[in-house]
Amino acid sequence: MNNRDLLSMSLRNLWRRKLRTFLTLLGVMIGATSIVIMLSLGLAIQEQQQSMLERMGSLSTITVSAPDSSSSGSVRRVYLDDRTLSDLSTISGVQAVAPITSGDLTILSYGNYRSFLSVQGIKPEYFRDFEIDIIEGHELRNSNKNRVQVIIPSNVRELLYSTTRAQDATKDKSFDPLRSRLTLGSRRNAHLTFPAQVVGVYDSNSFSADVYILEEDMKYLLERLGAPGPSGSGRESIYSQIQVKVDDVANVQSVRDEITERGYQTRSLQDIAEQMNQGTIIIQAVLGGIGSISLIVAAIGIANTMVMSIYERTREIGVMKVIGASVSDVRRIFLTEASLIGLLGGVLGIALSIGISQLLNYIFRSTEAGIRLGADAVISIIPIWLIALSLIFSSLIGLMAGYFPAKRATKLSAIEAIKTE
Fold first, then answer.
1. Which residue, 14, 28, 25, is CA-closest to 309?
2. pLDDT at residue 167 tops 70
3. What would the pLDDT profile of 350-378 be if each residue is shown by its tens digit?
4. Are 405 and 335 in contact (CB under 8 A)?
């Protein structure tokens, strides 16, 4: 029996029992839909997490800090100074290093708004070395003690709140971050404030709350406030932390290991990324397991359909054997029918899954969370590989469900089967 005859006979047999075939297909379709939708939700979570990490900053950046001497157990005190910068820059894979000076300095007022955004002191080349885009204005250039130059994040409107109304600056169309009056100071010493001038806006993310000024201005303002800056027992140029940019994400871990061996503490977004990936794997496993239950139930339905088909076609099987059909031919007929049910059910399930996925995304984009994330916000993602995998899996489920009924059909005696009415 050639493949064309085999396929034609299998389709005719399924068509003769339309209702039973339809109900079995329905079970496979529901099973395939449930597992695809569940996995698509997990993939969307993974996509959103990856997007969130990209907004949080670069995965190739390492933050270096000095360990707490009281908890590190190390006899040798480790400082962050100019020698540290030179030391870190010699590590293989390090592209740039930048010191950060910080202290008790925040934005106290911004026009009619208030906030407590953290102010960081940097060197002028910081934005260029770390490839941070200035989308408005220009970089920090000259130190000005009378009016400190400031660069603010692009999401500053979301971080500023009115002193008279409980709302942020996003709804105030008249508020111009580049032209509004800015005052720096300390929450501990609210009477001493410093005027500042916004000279630029950098491309930030929803997690950034840093305002940047020149390092020398930061030190001057902290001295005026009387705030204790980083101290190193007389050592020169002690920094709060050092940012290290690695030339490739693949080299981040080796660079971190080298920095740690030299006595410093490190942290990176890759720590969060690894935790997120582990959580995502668990979520996808749980969602996939829930969806696969429906497909297992559908496989039982296929097996039941095939067994009932054997009882109804016992005489037909006997006639086939008498006229020369081999055991292999009989087995192939039943396996083909079961595989077709699985494949067709998978196709219908994919079509339904795509429709449900688009509906879920449409509903999600109309919610407040979806509006904040933008037009590309999704809650369900069905890639091509998931479609192909679902079709293959559905067909295999049908094939496995039909194996034992097919084996049973091959063991029927031809003579006894012909006698069956």
1. 14
2. no
3. 999 999 999 988 888 888 767 766 666 78
4. no
| Length in residues, the chain | 421
Share of the chain above pLDDT 70, in %: 80
**pLDDT tens column, 380-392:** 889 999 899 888 8
Phi–psi pair at 281, nearest 5 degrees: -60, -40
Q: Give the residue with greater pLDDT, 323 vs 124.
A: 124
Q: Measured between alpha carbons, how far is 373 from 421 in angstroms, rounded to an integer? A: 67
Contact 418/319 with Cβ under 8 angstroms?
yes
Are 97 and 81 in contact by the 8 Å Cβ rule? The answer is: no
Structure tokens at 333: 């007929």
With CA atoms as reference, report the closest residue to 202 among 138, 121, 119.
138
Tokens representing 142 are 């000259």
Task: Report the alpha-carbon distance of residue 198 to residue 389 in Å, rounded.
Answer: 54
Provide the token pair at 341.
Answer: 């049910």
218 touches 228 (CB < 8 A): no
Domain ranges in the chain are 3-55+275-419, 61-247
The residues facing 196 across adjacent strands are: 148, 182
Q: Number of C-alpha atoms within 13 angstroms, CB side, residue 252?
A: 20
Place of tokens 């009619």: 112
